[in-house]
Design brief:
Low-confidence stretches: none
Radius of gyration: 17 Å
Number of helices: 1
Mean pLDDT: 91
Helix content: under 10%
Shape: globular
Largest sheet: 9 strands, parallel
Structural class: mainly beta
Number of strands: 23
């Protein structure tokens, strides 16, 4: 039988360096396979809530108009700005910033990551130092006749074969230091490597996997075109 592909989160995300999450499963996030993490995420987060000293760290700055759910963990120095909603099993890591009028649900937001304004992410993992500009949406389920009961599992096309995420609810995995322009749609079910750039008005559809250090640009089709960063067309 052919080998079943695996997707190690550490190939995309750095381990949290802050002691804030040191006693939780998030400290070992990078050691896990994506499908395993998605299957256990809710329970692991529930445990983390009992293990952190402060669910919302005293040095975090939350705007009075922001809504923070009872299960959300917010790290030291993190900021959540006006009219933003953060809920579900979400971690806002140290020094991360969630901008104006965003919706963040069931997500891991890495250290020093910046979400610009009007960002929507769901069931998504973002590495450290990521920057998403305005109007970036990560969708978590395929369009079906009954959106309340999604039944189409998320898949990724890895070099070693088709990878099954084991759930119909998965947005994207976005690696450390990836940067995006504005008006971008990602997923459901996509993986973008470290140090990538995604140009404005790009759609990265289901199953797509973008390697590290790639530039992703829109073309005439409702998909995308990726090429390594630093080739002649970038000069």
């Amino acid at each position: 039988m052919p080998d079943i592909p695996t997707l190690r989160l550490g190939d995309y995300l750095s381990a949290p360096s802050s002691i804030f999450l040191a006693a939780t499963a998030y400290a070992h996030l990078h050691r896990n396979d994506l499908a395993w993490w998605l299957a256990h995420w809710t329970n692991l987060h529930a445990q983390a809530l009992t293990q952190v000293e402060h669910r919302i760290h005293p040095t975090a700055r939350i705007h009075p108009t922001a809504l923070i759910g009872e299960e959300v963990i917010v790290g030291p120095g993190a900021r959540v700005w006006e009219f933003t909603s953060v809920r579900g099993h979400t971690v806002i890591s140290p020094e991360a910033s969630v901008g104006f009028n965003c919706e963040v649900t069931n997500a891991y937001v890495g250290a020093r990551t910046v979400l610009g304004h009007r960002i929507g992410i769901n069931r998504t993992l973002l590495g450290s130092g990521v920057h998403l500009s305005a109007n970036v949406t990560v969708t978590a389920i395929h369009l079906t006749r009954d959106m309340g009961r999604p039944d189409r599992d998320a898949l990724l096309r890895l070099p070693g074969g088709l990878y099954r995420c084991g759930t119909p609810r998965f947005g994207a995995l976005i690696g450390d230091h990836t940067q995006t322009g504005s008006n971008i749609t990602i997923g459901p079910g996509a993986a973008i490597g470290r140090h990538c750039q995604v140009n404005s008005h790009t759609a990265i559809g289901p199953t797509h996997v973008i390697p590290d250090h790639h530039l992703v640009s829109p073309d005439l089709r409702p998909t995308h075109r990726a090429r390594p960063l630093g080739d002649a067309r970038d000069r």
